[in-house]
Amino acid sequence: xxGPWHGPSPSAGQRLLLAGCLEPDPERAVTAWRxxxxxxxxxxEDAASxxxxxxxxxxxxxxxxxxxxxxxxLGWYRRAWVLSELAASAAGAxxxxxxxxxxxxxxxxxxxxxxxxxxxxxxxxxIRSIELVIANAGRRRCDELRALALHGPAGxxxxxxxxxxxxLPMSGDRLAAAxxxxxxxxxxxxxxxxxxMIAHLAARNWCWDPPQRxxxxxxxxxxxxxxxxxxxxxxxxGAVIARADLGWSAKQALQSxxxxxxxxxxxxxxxPLISAARAVPDGLAAGTRGRLRQTRxxxxxxxxxxxxxxxxxxxxx
Length: 317
Description:
With 317 residues, the chain is mainly α. The protein contains 17 helices and five strands. The protein has helices spanning 12-22, 26-39, 47-60, 62-65, 67-100, 109-116, 139-150, 155-159, 174-180, 194-205, 215-226, 230-244, 247-260, 264-268, 271-278, 289-295, 303-310; strands spanning 105-108, 119-120, 123-124, 129-134, 164-169.
């Protein structure tokens, strides 16, 4: 856990929680939890730490975790699952509405991971945000679907920002569109390929300042370990990040993930992904201010990406 970090760095406590979540040895995971428990101030921890702590407690069990902090972390986990069930219900209603209107809809993000069975320690990960890409609809139709969700059973949670909601046309977001373009039909909602899901997780979640989401690391590792062909997985991921023009972000994300992997075998399983990412041009996130102006995608970038852009010199200078 002492390697260099290639983006906004997690705190010492977050690194301990990551170690516990990613560590294949259950005993070492328990040790990481106990070390974090000794140093944490639960009431003042951030959302990323609460989420990782809840996943770690769910993994090692209450008998090993013990204490009031474990009880509160388990409560956080149960609350996340209540919201996830609401999100799943809302997504089902949206999928039915799309089917009735002959709209081609693809789930991405948390919803795609939940539907495809992405898990941590044998448990599916809860849905934090409903993200849908509509292939044959414009912004007006997407707005109508958002209004439908706001009037459904999850409407109050969405309005309170306890559940995220993004419904986009194919032209609404490069990364979302590139991810959705790989989709294969499954019931009412199409799902992107596993490689596309890795690309979306890496390029979307890596660059936060400070880190607000770190679950993506456990998600990528789960997808990689569940896959049977690492080279095909890496090729599919590389195609998506090339299409989205986000090669640099994906490279930095995967390198950061490899740096925090606790074992040589887990680090090595990421080698095909990193090689595929390195074969892709750096793209938008490593571009100059002039490139940013040309693409007109400034509002899409996260605050951390904009911060890194400001630190880079223009190519002309």
